[in-house]
Design goal:
With about 200 residues, the chain is α+β, with helices and mostly antiparallel strands. The chain has six helices and twelve strands.
């Protein structure tokens, strides 16, 4: 009788023991927050053979215009905005300041370490990772590009963003507190008085 009880206890112990977790396994209810998820979305506004792409995951802020997902995919924050480029400076109270860094810092705080969802404009964007993919980024339901423009750290390059830029200008937020060169003109070599000339790093995007 004792031997039978011992045998039953041994079998139950084997059955109830936790299974080893292998690399790549996903635990139910505990998704990996670092995972980059790629999805193809279809909708009634598209032809049956068409789709759009959504990429979701943690990102690194490269500058106010560019984010990099953990799998290396680089995306444009929003196709409808233009933020200061790397090494670009602005003028505030008669002094130069790194408006490129301030714009990137604002974007980083806006994201707050949360996953970003990027919606690509063009089908096939999930296949080409050699260039920055154009689209629009969200954290939850917050449009990152719209918030960059509304807070004055990017300019509108789309009519839908223009009201946000007007609000930023009227309230002297971000870049609008002082003087700056339009980012597209800055890339062509225009500079504020006293601002360093174009450098190789600053010319790249």
């Amino acid at each position: 009788m004792r031997q039978r009880i011992a045998l039953i206890a041994l079998v139950l112990g084997q059955l109830l023991a936790p299974l080893p977790v292998r690399a790549g396994d996903e635990l139910p209810g505990k998704p990996d927050p670092l995972k980059v998820i790629r999805e193809r979305l279809r909708g009634q506004w598209l032809r049956p053979e068409q789709y759009r792409v959504r990429i979701t995951g943690k990102v690194t802020v490269i500058d106010g215009n560019t984010l990099r997902f953990e799998d290396g995919t680089r995306v444009i924050t929003s196709g409808g905005i233009d933020a200061p480029d790397l090494q670009q400076q602005g003028l505030l109270d008669g002094k130069l300041y790194p408006c490129d860094k301030d714009a990137a810092d604002f974007l980083e705080k806006l994201i707050g370490g949360r996953p970003v969802s990027f919606y690509a404009y063009a089908e096939g964007s999930d296949r080409d990772t050699s260039k920055r993919i154009r689209g629009v980024c969200f954290v939850g339901e917050t449009n990152l590009g719209a918030e960059m423009v509304r807070n004055g750290w990017a300019l509108s390059h789309h009519s839908g963003m223009t009201p946000y830029e007007i609000l930023a200008r009227e309230n002297k937020r971000g870049l609008w507190r002082g003087q700056f060169i339009l980012p597209e003109l800055w890339r062509k070599g225009q500079r504020l008085p006293g601002e360093p000339p174009e450098t190789k790093a600053g010319a790249q995007r």
